[in-house]
Amino acid sequence: MSRVLAYAIVAAGLLTTVPAAAQIYADQGSDLYRAPRSDSENYALELRIGAYRPEADADFDRIYGDQQGPLVGLELDVLPLRIPYLGRIGGGLSFEWAQYRASACVDASCTNRASERSSFRIFPFGFMAVLRADVLARELGIPVVFTGKIGLDLIQFRERVGSRTSGSGIALGLRWAAQVALELDFINQRAARNLAEEWGINHTFFYFEVFGSTAENGVRLGDRLAYVGGLGLSF
Amino acid sequence: MRVTLFTGAVILGAALPSLGQAQGIAVTISELDGPGGSRTIQEDIARGVNVADCANPGATTFTFSVNSAIETQFQLWRGGASSACNTATARSGDMVECDDLGTVTVLDDNTFELTLERLLEGTADSASLCEEGGDIQGDSMSVFIFDRSGALGNGEDVPDAAFANISVLIDAARPAQPNVDVLSVSGDTSVPVSWTGLGGETNIEYQLFNDPGTRGCAPGSGRLITGSPPPADLVPLTTTGVMVTNATVNPAGLGLDIGESTLVFVAGRDNARNVGDLSDGICVTRVATFGYCDTLENMAEAGMDVETCPDGCAAGPAAPAGVALAWATLALLRRRQWGASR
After folding, report:
1. Cβ distance B90 to B97 under 8 Å?
2. How close A119 gets to chain B, by Cα (Å)?
3. CA distance linking residue A161 with residue B293, whole number of Å
4. How far is CA A235 from the centre of its chain?
5. Tens digit of pLDDT for each residue in B114-147?
6. What pLDDT is recorded for position A126?
7. Which H or E element spans position B33?
8. pLDDT score for A56
9. How far is the C-alpha of A99 from the C-alpha of A220, rounded, in Å?
10. Residue A138: which region, alpha, beta or left (left: phi > 0; alpha: psi -120 to 50)?
11. Closest residue to B290, CB basis, from A80, A90, A161
12. How far is B335 from chain A (nearest CA, A)?
């Protein structure tokens, strides 16, 4: 329920922000916004934080409750190809981390717990094809970019109970993601231009991404629907 | 170059806290040996005299090293932390604040020794430095070492070139009893315990104690008693870092079987290595603990149809598609790179 609420809030935020930002461009002249566009915009770096929870089973829920992470991570996209009037295409590599902690169970049904702590850590790696549709921003001056990703999810996991490792391994699965990003150049176009000229950073953006994974290794480590958000740079 | 030399001198000065101040005579305390331990490292000597040393001041000896091979005798005076015993007014007259400790003879190896008992001789003020209940951070006294070649009298100021001054810290106040946060904990290999930090102390560490072989959590079941210091011969289970107020206890490491309990106590240890009174005992019980993977394994062993957490690598649904997409992307990027290089 809380997840649905979060989606709703983000969607509402985007629905209200994007038209306002587009209006600002219209007022200021979209040429100013389009100016930083560069054909050398081959990379995107994303700092991400969000909610993630392995869809293991009821036993996992019983031990670790409804913790959602948080999931924190980093993604680098390499986008060397431009498809005219659509956007850029390439590959992406992401690395993330999340941890779930609880008092260790004393019995199999986990009705009693010890003072000792148990922790379940996951390290998801994503190797994905990325399509970054920036045609709205580049051709129409609407600062919204849609991105789709699909590829391999590799999740390394380790569970520790006290100082003992109770299980570890690697799970593989399919990973997909859909992202909507709001480019921030309209807030201060002069600063955006300076950033592009002096540092080669063409655009900065806030983004929201929903994604899913089917990774499994005995335990279902994937999450059919998770979300992250954060700050990104394209350069 | 000059800056480098100055910086080096500053660093050296900071590293040698018990070096006599810059006069013609250079004196250091090279060893502090007593019931509180044998200390030869400057950092340990600078921690000062502790309760164990004060309990037997006649057996606590300072060894001073001097740089002068000419002088065979020095005259010693003792004052408070800020006393200037090199001035005539501090040694005589109505404003006297220093005590004459007599002379010492320098040995062939350019050292001389002084017992704590002798350092404390004289006024009641100095003797009380070694009584419990003093400043929790310790009290300092100054030892002035005068060159006797000039046959100085009490009515004269001693020139800078003719004396050295060393500060000696005496910490006769043991840390108070810590308050533990939880009196009963359980686990198998790593059980967290925590307590409230002791205010007023700086550089305090904490030690955890258990009387080996004792079982059960009844008070007084071993040699350790709440509110009293631990026996001197008992080795602590662990010593925390400075100001750290939590630690872990390994019930299996204490030799407990599943279901057995024992008491663990916490005591503070201050900068002078005084160990304080023991806290209330924390009852540590060893119990078998389970994580998620253990639960799955237990269910599988019981004949239930469940997957376990295997060590190794396994693939979930649609993983091959993911692998194929990842390879295709890599191939695309390589092709693009190859194309660009042509």
Report:
1. yes
2. 8
3. 10
4. 18
5. 999 888 887 656 667 787 666 777 888 889 888 7
6. 93
7. strand B27-34
8. 79
9. 15
10. alpha
11. A161
12. 11
